[in-house]
Each structure stands twice: as C-alpha cells, then as structure tokens.
Amino acid sequence: MNIKNISLRRMKLKLKDPFQTSFGTQTEREFIIVEVQGENHVGYGECVVNSAPFYNEETVKTAWHIMEDFLIPRIYSQSEINHPDEVSKLFKPFRRNNMAKAALEGAIWDLYAKENKITLSEALGGSKKSIDVGISIGIQPSVDELVRVVGKYVNEGYKRIKIKIKPGIDVDALKAVRKQFPTIQMMADANSAYTLDDIEIFKELDQLNLMMIEQPLAHDDIIDHAKLQSQIKTPICLDESIHSLEDAKKAIELGSCRIINLKIGRVGGLTESKKIHDYCSEKGIPLWCGGMLESGIGRAHNIAITSLSNFTLPGDTASSSRYWDEDIVYPEVTAVEGVIQIPETPGIGYAPQKELLDKYTEEVINVGCGYYVK
Ligand SMILES: O=C(O)CCC(=O)C1=CC=C[C@@H](O)[C@@H]1C(=O)O
Ligand SMILES: [Mg+2]
C-alpha cells in the first residue's frame, strides 16, 4: 500500500443524552478521525480518546501530538506497507498511547481491505454474517428512571443490558431491575469504583444472576480482582486493566477474570485485538466488544472485530441513534432486535459522509509524505 496523505480531524459530536459513569458525566464526545489516502481508496480510523484522562491516560491533545509528531512520520519512514500487521511493529518503539496507535492502524486496515476488495471482517478472519449486541446504560437519576430506561431497550430487543454502578447506586438499583425483568441478560460495570473492602456489596450482587461484573476494582489491578473472583461466583470481566496480550495472559493465569471486554483502542489496534482473541479462544475465555461512545467509524471497526468467532457475548455496539441525532456515516449503524448485519461492502462497510465530517470537524491537518499542510 502506497500511502499518499494522512489527515487528522478533531471532531465534536453532542450526545443525545448525558452519559454518567462512576468517573463522571459526558454530554459530548471530542475525538479524532484519521483518514489515510492510498492509491485508489481512503481508509478511516477513529481515535476513541476523551477530552480528559478519566478512562485512561490519553486525551485528544496527547493523541493528536503522538500521531502528528511520532506515529505518522514513522509510517512515512516506510516506503511500502504490505500488510496492516506491520503497523503495530512500526509503533513498537513508542510506549503506550494505544488509542493513538489504534486509530492510525485501524485506518490502514480499512485501506488494506478496500484495496483488496474485501470487507474488514474478512480481512480480520471474521466468520459471522451478523452479530448480537447489547446496550450500556449510564447511571440514572433514580431507580424508577433506570427501570424505565432498561424497559425501553429490552423492548428494542437488545440482547444484553449493561448497567453502570457506583457506591450508593448499585445493589438496590440492580435488585429493582432484576425484580422487573427476572430473566434478562444483565451485567454491571463499576469502572473501578470499588475496593476489596466492599466485599459485602459484591456478595449481594452475587445473588442477582448477573452475567458478569465489569472492572469492579482499580483500573490497573489484576491481583485484587483475582482475590475477589475467588470469593464470588459471578464472573469478573476486565476492561481498563487489559492493555495488551501480555496483560490478558497475566490476568487469565492469575484467575483475575473469566471474561474480557475487548476495546480495539485500549489494546492498541486490530492486530493486537486478534492476538488477544486467539489466545482467549485457546484458554476458553469469552470476549465481547466494548464501546467508547464511538461515531459510526469506530462502531464499524467494532462490528468487524466482533465477527470473529470467540466474541461469543453481546457487546456495547448499539445503534447510532442511541447516541447521535445524526451519525457521520451512511448507512448509520442499526441494530434490529439486537442484531447487526455484517456489511458486505469492502472495508469498514459504512461510508463516512464528507459534508457531515466537515460539519463536525473542529480542526484538521493534512500530513503528506513528509510535509505538513495545517
Ligand atoms: O455504548 C458504549 O459505547 C459503551 C459506553 C461505556 O460503557 C463506556 C464507555 C467509555 C468508558 C466507560 O465509561 C464505559 C466502559 O467502561 O465500557
Ligand atoms: Mg467498562
């Protein structure tokens, strides 16, 4: 693949509804879209960072800097990239900054698929023609409101309901939902809001027949999670703790989790995602694809990786309309009764719309072969 130009777009999209988690409330998403111009096609990637370092250490500003000043020049240092698997090797000298790496690498995966006239799913080795998806519900102002919102999404057919919890908004809220919906597939995401001192709360949650409890303890822990998992029957799912295949190996070895929420950005890209997928498949650890409140470009990448066989649990890739008044791709991502069809057109399968990209672009730079046009 001959890469002729790379653009970075800083985007802002207003969320339809505020999204509250244990570490704060989001009302809009600021993120970066990467466009990689090849001979005949453009590959698209999404950098799923936030404006502030609440989820991980990266922000829009850090990612922009790392891509502009280190990762893009590194890509141009290669006369030819023959396969996207080469990109993560190129980025190895640079520590962490996984979401920045994943955005560029993802755009090159999309370009590769388009230039080879295959879908991104096929390029990744996906086997499914459709995927089951669930939905993630932020912390609600009241238990009654939570039950109402859960009912709305159950009626829309989502295959699993993920509910955000934090100390003080956990057991009673989930008990009320379980009472109203005794048989639904239901899970909790704590975003690291608890410690082992909260063991009694976890023992109460353990009675609610949850599919899993996601990231209950510290964002960089696997030791205490192993101690907690030995005391509850509900599977622990790790999200923030897993940044690489190495992290996944250690967590599985220690018994820190029985499920992993895979996020392409958090682990540094699609090549690393495939490695984690294959290893977890060998070890009998099911995966699902988490979300970062992405636009349709990031959602398209999530849909493609979810087509791999060991993504056996419904993920967070809900319809675009859950988040946005208008998405920046056509068609928009749509789940029907909790099912999304894998696109059959080359690449990511959802076409970014230039006028919508321009409408929501706050800033753009074009980085050609060694020159900058601000
Ligand atoms: O709908 C989605 O995109 C998933 C949203 C979601 O649950 C999360 C997004 C970003 C960080 C966290 O708050 C949380 C998660 O931990 O998965
Ligand atoms: Mg999570």
Outline the secondary-structure elements.
Blueprint: E1 5-21, E2 24-37, E3 42-47, H1 60-76, H2 85-90, H3 98-115, H4 120-124, E4 130-132, E5 135-137, H5 143-155, E6 161-164, H6 171-180, E7 186-189, H7 199-205, E8 213-214, H8 223-229, E9 236-238, H9 245-254, E10 259-262, H10 264-267, H11 270-283, E11 287-289, H12 296-306, E12 329-330, E13 339-341, E14 351-352, H13 354-360, E15 361-368, E16 372-373
Parallel strand pairs: 5-6, 6-7, 7-8, 8-9, 9-10, 10-11
Antiparallel strand pairs: 1-2, 1-15, 2-3, 4-13, 12-14, 15-16
This protein binds ligand 164 and magnesium ion.
Magnesium ion (MG) is lined by residues 189, 191, 214-215, 239, 261, 290.
Q: What class would the helix/strand composition place it in?
A: alpha/beta
CATH architecture of the largest domain: Alpha-Beta Barrel
CATH superfamily of the largest domain: Enolase-like C-terminal domain
Query: What composes the largest sheet?
Result: 7 strands, parallel
- How many separate helices? 13
Give a description of the structure.
By secondary structure, the protein is of the alpha/beta class. The protein folds into 2 domains: 5-117 and 352-373, Enolase-like, domain 1; 122-348, Alpha-Beta Barrel (TIM Barrel). It is 34% helix and 21% strand. It contains 13 helices and 16 strands. The chain has helices at residues 60-76, 85-90, 98-115, 120-124, 143-155, 171-180, 199-205, 223-229, 245-254, 264-267, 270-283, 296-306, 354-360, and strands spanning 5-21, 24-37, 42-47, 130-132, 135-137, 161-164, 186-189, 213-214, 236-238, 259-262, 287-289, 329-330, 339-341, 351-352, 361-368, 372-373. A 7-stranded parallel sheet has the order 5-6-7-8-9-10-11. The radius of gyration is 20 Å and the shape is globular. 51% of the residues are buried. Converts 2-succinyl-6-hydroxy-2,4-cyclohexadiene-1-carboxylate (SHCHC) to 2-succinylbenzoate (OSB). The active site is at residues 164, 263. InterPro entries: Enolase-like_C_sf, Enolase-like_N, Enolase_C-like, Mandelate_racemase_C, Mandelate_racemase_N_dom, MenC, OSBS/NAAAR. Its cofactor is a divalent metal cation.
